[in-house]
Amino acid sequence: MKVTNWGNYPVIDAVVHEPRTTDDVRRIVAEERELIPRGLGRCYGDSSLNHTILSTRHLDHFIAFDSSTGLLTCEAGVSFADIVEAMVPRGWFLPVTPGTKFVTVGGAVASDVHGKNHHVAGSLSSHIASLKLLLASGEVRTVTPEGEPELFWATCGGMGLTGVILEAAIRMKRIETAYIRQRIVKNRNIDEAVEAFERNAEWTYSVAWIDCLAKGEHLGRSALILGEHATQAEVGFRYRDPLSAERPLSVAVPFMFPGFALNTLTVKAFNALRYATYRNGDSFVEYEPFFYPLDGIRSWNRIYGRRGFTQYQFVVPRNGAAALLRRILSRIAESGEGSFLAVLKLFGRQEGMLSFPMEGYTLALDFAMTPEALRLFSELDTLVTENGGRLYLTKDVRMNPETFERGYAKAARFKEVKRSVDPHGKFLSLQSRRVGIL
Ligand SMILES: Cc1cc2nc3c(=O)[nH]c(=O)nc-3n(C[C@H](O)[C@H](O)[C@H](O)COP(=O)(O)OP(=O)(O)OC[C@H]3O[C@@H](n4cnc5c(N)ncnc54)[C@H](O)[C@@H]3O)c2cc1C
């Protein structure tokens, strides 16, 4: 069948297995020479693509929840959407969540996803008590950060290359309400934005939306959005049941847009309008639009049309970040390659051999897949890696082995651990081959 991920590029022909039990998984892993696990395909490029795919679609059972500790154990194919739906009314939230809830637990662990709270909470792996991992040999191992640190830190962020994650135990976070106390701080340029992040670093959640086509003194103008889980005392008088938020209406993009629909002018107009609609100030918002603003528009990835799109997401060290971000944003604004979406976040430190976060700032920008964008990315790769940064594997579809090796200092250690549990290279993706993890 034809398979593609969120960026709609590339589209490949693949055999897709859909096991229902651990024994099925073991049999498929034994029979296939090479394969890659796949969750909901929300990575942008080819991380979960290969000509043989093991889908975790049917491995979607909740296993246990301990309401005294908040430890949730579930199968790898359970989605974050299922988790928030079941847990928010009970007063628990995900300790870390990406900008979409349509990801699986297995996919989120394998990408070691980060949220808007990385600077205070780290990425998902910091909240995983244990994993059940099926290795190339068929052995199922329970992997914990204390018991088997090398395999644990290779698997979290390991992009499915150490084996099939069957289950995970996640330490959930207590919440009193389904609402977020939100503050918006508008910034006139990138220097102000970075200063605002630093000044507000005690907020649990922070993210800035950037108008990446503004130039000159407005380069990097943005709205910094801060948030805290609201307490009952804060919202109790407003809502009858503070743990049940209204479900936002969901609309869908009905068809692939033609390629010309998104061009520099439309993107520029959209960005300018969006900047103008933000207002400084405080409010209470439901958790869904705060954490998952784009999930309300199903299949929004179709606006880029059949050519597909990608996200260029990089992180650069905190020291000197404002100056480097200014250089990178100037280059993007000059190129005229419109990014519909540009998001800036602050990261803290992170373990994990291939985990993306490092202490610094991460900027994520969406681009249509065009030859001009690809040329721009090559220039940006040099700027990012020469300054100690790296690119996010789960968003990538074109990084070369040099950029990968320069960005990921622990890549050699990762490859050693991989060889020890997968000596014949059974778990491989199109991406792993491209960046040199064989
Ligand atoms: C709109 C949008 C917003 C996003 N925002 C963020 C964000 O804020 N922060 C962030 O960190 N990411 C973000 N992402 C990326 C997303 O969180 C990751 O790509 C995530 O891994 C996708 O999960 P999935 O279940 O769709 O996995 P897939 O995309 O199918 O696979 C991703 C990786 O996980 C591996 N994998 C999947 N299941 C298993 C398993 N059971 N065992 C072993 N390996 C497995 C695959 O081999 C692949 O390498 C966003 C993506 C979208 C589309």
Describe the structure.
- This protein starts with a strand and ends with a helix.
- The chain has two domains: 62-175, Uridine Diphospho-n-acetylenolpyruvylglucosamine Reductase, domain 3; 179-397, Alpha-Beta Plaits.
- The model has no long low-confidence stretch (mean pLDDT 93).
- It has 14 helices and 22 strands.
- It is globular.
- The longest helix has 16 residues, at 371-386.
- An eight-stranded antiparallel sheet has the order 17-13-15-14-20-21-19-22.
- Helix 10 (321-335) packs antiparallel against helix 11.
- It has helices at 22-31, 80-87, 105-110, 118-121, 149-155, 190-199, 232-235, 264-277, 287-291, 321-335, 371-386, 401-407, 411-421, 430-435; strands at residues 2-3, 12-13, 15-17, 36-38, 52-55, 62-66, 71-75, 92-93, 128-134, 140-143, 164-171, 173-174, 179-187, 205-210, 222-229, 251-252, 281-286, 297-298, 309-317, 342-347, 360-368, 390-391.
- By secondary structure, it is α+β, with helices and mostly antiparallel strands.
- Flavin-adenine dinucleotide is lined by residues 5-6, 36-43, 47-48, 56, 76, 98-100, 103-104, 106-108, 110-111, 113-114, 159-160, 164-165, 294, 394, 429.
Overall 3D form:
globular
Total tally of structural domains: 2
If you average the pLDDT, what whole number results? Answer: 93
CA gyration radius, whole angstroms = 21 Å
Number of strands: 22
Cα(first) to Cα(last) distance is 25 Å
Q: How many strands, what sense, and barrel or not for the largest sheet?
A: 8 strands, antiparallel
Ranges where pLDDT stays below 50 over 5 or more residues in a row are none
The class by helix and strand makeup works out as: alpha+beta
Widest sheet: strand ordering: 17-13-15-14-20-21-19-22
CATH topology group of the largest domain: Alpha-Beta Plaits
